[in-house]
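Forum: Protein Structure Q&A
Topic: Joint prediction for protein chains with partners

I've read a bunch of threads here and the consensus seems to be that you should model interacting components together rather than docking separate models afterwards. I'd like to see that in practice. Below is the full input, 316 residues plus whatever partners are listed. Could one of the regulars post the assembled result?
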Amino acid sequence: MKKFLKIFLSVIIIIMLIIFCIISLNGIGKEIPNEKIIHHTEPEIKTNHKISLNVIETAFGRTLEGFVRAGGSFFKEKLISHNAVVIKHPKGNIMIDGGLGMREGQDFKQIPFYLKPFFYYKFKQPAKDVLDKYNIKINKIILTHMHWDHVGSIRDFESMEVITRKEEFEFAKTEKAEPPAYIKSQYLDSENFTLIEFSNIPYEIFSKSFDIYNDGSIVLVPLEGHSPGSIGIFVNISQKERYFFIGDITWMLEGIIYSSHKYYISSLLVDFNKENLGKEINRIHQFAKLHPEIRIIPSHDFVAYWGIERLNLFDQ
Ligand SMILES: [Zn+2]
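Posted by a regular:
Agreed with the consensus. Here's the joint model:
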């Protein structure tokens, strides 16, 4: 009986220690110091073209806010999405990322088993099948970055132009690029990458930019910290309807609202340069306060996409 009691108490103490660690790590990075925004060039939004947005949810998951944002609650559920965003544009339709592709099962096998719980998802549909169903032809794919949950579906679109940054592409080929962030088999054989070079034209708070169709409707900007060459994408439907897709700078909109990092362990696993990332989060946080009319959308925040028309393979 005594032995049983000892084991029981030890288990309780270990569980309490684990809970204590999880909660204390949660406080790290919950407030990032403010730094003044230097550049701010407000663009003129032209609305000559009729463009529209759709979202395809390729996979989804549920987690607790505490595991996706520093300072988040462990009693609040968050819905996670892996999405492809489709921009219909008269000069050619564009897809942002692509969510998880047809070979998602193979890809996920390459994540070490002890890290799988951090990245668990339920697969729903590949973007390629949904686009085929609606007869939407894509002209090019723009990657916010090359992490496995964003780049996997490029293999489903043979010979499709894929846009990324040189810094991202070069790093993705090095030995440092490994699971759980990068999975090389997803992109090493592809010859369809176009490496963009930003022009020195300031755009909003960014000192460099790249206007895809030179019409102000889709404008790329460099984002620092999460990966060596992340890209942020402004989509301007009209003067009043504007979106800013920020990739994985934060996983949840609350990260921008409260200016906070991801949960400490998650950040260790996926963020490239936490100091630069903190600065980027804070800049976007200040920008969001100046421009509440622009919808800021982190890739994985289900709620942030609310109101954008969804395309599905089967009726929901
Ligand atoms: Zn991601």
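The chain is about 25% helix and 20% strand.
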